[in-house]
Amino acid sequence: MQNISVRFAKHGGELKPLTVQDGAKYFEFRKELAEGEEIELFITKIENENDATAGQIAKIHAMIRDLARETGNTFDEMKVTVKEKAGLINPASKECVSFAKCNKKELSDAIQTCIEIGNFIGYYF
After folding, report:
1. What pLDDT, in 10s, does the model give residues 87-96?
2. Torsions phi, psi of 87, nearest 5?
3. CB atoms inside a 10 Å sphere around CB 80
4. Second label for 59, Cα 20 to 30 Å away, from 3, 36, 43, 123?
5. Is 112 helix (H, G, I), strand (E, B) or coil?
6. How far apart are CA 79 and CA 114, in angstroms?
7. CB 115 within 8 A of CB 125
8. From CA 84, how far away is CA 90, in angstroms rounded?
């Protein structure tokens, strides 16, 4: 497991997983780390439930990199494929919508699209 996205909330002065599933994903991620292995964190305060987060965008980009490597496509080719399949095309201009301009639901759809493409090619996230 290379990437996880979990939500925490502050309770009693400590950050705690928001759901049992978030706690389980975080526990598994920690368990798989070797002693001394480094990680990088993206932490975003959620102001509005509908706003996309930097973590979502980072996750999508990591998933696209993995899919590109597995399929032999470039990162940009795979990004366009994901956006097309996720419906992130501006109907007026027929151009792809930037992930930075997407809301949380649209980015969730793009993540699901990456998972589905991965399943189709036999690469499981």
Report:
1. 999 888 889 9
2. 75, 25
3. 16
4. 36
5. helix
6. 10
7. yes
8. 10
**Number of CB atoms found within 10 A of residue 76's CB:** 10
Amino acid sitting at position 47: E
DSSP 46: -
Q: How far apart are CA 8 and CA 103, in angstroms?
A: 20
Which distant-in-sequence residues (6+ apart) come within 8 Å of 51 by Cβ?
103, 104
Please tell me the distance from the alpha carbon of residue 74 to that of residue 37, in angstroms, as a whole number: 29
Separation between Cα atoms, residue 100 and residue 43, nearest integer Å:
16
The pLDDT tens digits of the residues spanning 9-25 come to 999 999 999 899 989 98
Residues present in the chain in total: 125
Tokens of 42: 């993206």
The pTM of the whole model exceeds 0.85: no
